[in-house]
Amino acid sequence: MEARLNFLAGPTAGKAVKYVMSVGKALKESPLPAAAQELVALRVSQINGCAACVDMHTKEAAAAGETPVRLNLVAAWREATVFTEAERAALRLAEQGTRIADGADGVGDEVWASAAEHYDEDELAALVFLIAFMNMVNRLNIITRQPAGGYEAGHVH
């Protein structure tokens, strides 16, 4: 499969990608735990069906020491016993923040309160931005049919 669009080829896309990547860098440097970041990025990408992002975040998480068991259970995290309560709260927020159209009230107060029990305001801000960021990147990749499978950990474009 070949991508419909090369984001680095044109002046407008190239300029926009630089800003998008700077947001990603700021989030990586945030106080939100790295494991939570990768789990959330992976779950949002699974929900949206973004193969390129599932490929990237699975490999990045594994390279950072995430276990195969936890990676394999992200899609079924509710029934899995391998995630902390904080990670579960982040995954719950990620799901509701991604499936906004499925819920009449968007993100529920109970889900927000659960996340707020585990993360401080700066971490919550990073979590919210990460969820929104991943949804945007997923859509960019899906619309342009970015291929998956060849990503190498540590080679973020």
Structure in words:
The chain contains 7 helices and no strands. It has one domain (11-143): AhpD-like (Up-down Bundle), CATH 1.20.1290. Helix 2 (34-48) runs parallel beside helix 7 (121-143) and helix 5 runs antiparallel to helix 6 (109-118). The chain is mainly α. The mean pLDDT is 94.
Summarize the structure.
With about 160 residues, the chain is mainly α. The chain has helices at about 10-30, 35-50, 50-65, 70-75, 85-100, 110-120, 120-145.
CATH class: Mainly Alpha
Using the coordinates shown, work out and report the CATH topology. AhpD-like
CATH superfamily grouping: AhpD-like
| Number of individual domains | 1
The gross shape turns out to be: globular
Which structural class is indicated by helix and strand composition? mainly alpha
Helix percent reads 55-70%
Q: Strand portion, in percent?
A: under 5%
- Could you say what the CATH architecture is? Up-down Bundle
